[in-house]
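Consider this pair:
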Amino acid sequence: MGHRSYLRSLSTMFVGRPATLDQMGDQTFQSAVAGAVRAELARADKKASELVDVLGLSRPTIYGRMTGAYPFTTAELEKVAAFIGITAQDIMLSASLSEHFGSGHPLGIVAPSAPSLDAWSQPRGSFRRRRPS
């Protein structure tokens, strides 16, 4: 059983509908799992840099996993979960929660977006400096 099908089976236990994970692209799925790992690390008051010793991987590799650029393997997820003090199923449950909050949510909950800034804008009340005469 590959790690993707294993993770699907874990999420099916909690979500009850594997079609949602099938509809998610690989990148979205990886990002959801990475976000869940970041969230669970924060809840446990642990730092991502501590995973270097736990997983035996380099910092850039850990960074790639934490950003969702590269997927976590099943063994890595289990090691991370043991380090945090939870199970891999808990991480998958946390990852499945991220799909409920977004533009498709029935309550219309969306993630806040940063305001667009003009590169040349100045604070209110600021004036161009005048040269001394």
